[in-house]
Amino acid sequence: MFATTHGNHYRSDYYDGLFRQRVALTTLPAGTSSHDLRHHYASLLLAAGESVVAVAERLGHENAGLVLSTYGHLMPDSEDRTRRAVDDAWCAPGVPPAEDQAV
């Protein structure tokens, strides 16, 4: 993801040191890693209602399975969202109440 001015990738030990130095200049907790920021990013997207497929794409995964297995616990309100979506569709303006519809 990051490269030297010559286009070479940083060695992991060098990159880790640079990252620790930068974290120390922020209000992030000591020990925060780039992997922690990646998890935070994914968590924020899911909390904002982004689809699992979209999050997988942003993280560079080929499918959503890993995102689901890693972050599925962060979506406890998905059942409520699903129910709300159906309720909103069925209660949309112009949709007559169920008792007025022929069966």
What's the shape? elongated
Largest sheet, described in full?
none
- What is the N-to-C order of secondary-structure elements (H for helix, E for strand)? HHHHH
Beta-strand proportion: under 5%
Question: For the terminal residues, how far apart are their CA atoms?
Answer: 59 Å
Helix count equals: 5
Radius of gyration: 22 Å
What structural category do the secondary elements indicate?
mainly alpha
By DSSP, the count of extended strands is 0
Helix content: 40-55%
- Contiguous runs where pLDDT drops below 50 for at least 5 residues: none
**Mean pLDDT across residues:** 85
Task: Give a quick precis of the structure.
With 103 residues, the protein is mainly α. The protein has helices spanning 12-24, 34-47, 52-59, 65-71, 78-90.
Descriptive report:
This protein is mainly alpha-helical. Helices cover 53% and strands 0% of the residues. The chain contains five helices and no strands. Helix 3 (52-59) packs across helix 4. It starts with 11 loop residues before the first helix and ends in a 13-residue tail after the last helix. The model has no long low-confidence stretch (mean pLDDT 85).
